[in-house]
């Protein structure tokens, strides 16, 4: 599960794994039909249909609500960080620091 469809597409294309975005609307009239919604994320995690949660800085900055919800699932289901990608990011003051841009958590019910 990812925050949104952007990282979900990357996971599906490069990882050859099915992926769903948390922010994808369950209403077919309000979403792109190429994306699959997660009607009940809690049930999907408990049924082991979802085992990994992916956070990325770009989706998190666009949709803070769904980024917060994803991290709530990480905490609720004892998420363990299994992958973190760091990148050099320029701060507002001009300094450059390494920050996480992608984090993958493994969750268990």
List keywords for this structure.
109 residues; alpha+beta; three-stranded antiparallel sheet; 3 strands
- Rounded Rg: 14 Å
Cross-sheet strand order for the largest sheet: 1-3-2
Sheet with most strands: 3 strands, antiparallel
The shape, in one word, is globular
What is the helix content?
25-40%
User: What is the multimeric organization of the chains shown?
Assistant: single chain
Total beta strands: 3
* Overall tally of structural domains: 1
Decide which structural class fits the backbone. alpha+beta
Structure explained in plain terms:
- The protein is an alpha+beta fold and 109 residues long.
- Strand 2 and strand 3 (96-106) form a beta hairpin.
- The mean pLDDT is 93.
- It has helices spanning 5-15, 41-46, 57-62, 64-76; strands spanning 52-56, 80-90, 96-106.
- The chain is 33% helix and 25% strand.
- The chain is built from four helices and three strands.
- The two termini are 15 Å apart.
- A three-stranded antiparallel β-sheet has the order 1-3-2.
- It has one domain (5-106).
């Amino acid at each position: 599960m990812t925050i949104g469809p952007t990282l979900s597409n990357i996971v599906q294309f490069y990882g050859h794994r099915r992926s769903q975005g948390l922010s994808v609307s369950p209403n077919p009239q309000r979403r792109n039909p190429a994306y699959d919604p997660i009607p009940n994320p809690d049930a999907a995690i408990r049924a082991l249909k979802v085992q990994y949660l992916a956070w990325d800085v770009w989706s998190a900055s666009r949709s803070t609500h769904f980024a917060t919800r994803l991290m709530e699932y990480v905490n609720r289901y004892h998420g363990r960080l299994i992958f973190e990608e760091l990148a050099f990011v320029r701060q507002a003051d001009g300094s450059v620091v390494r920050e996480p841009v992608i984090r993958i958590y493994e969750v268990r019910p």
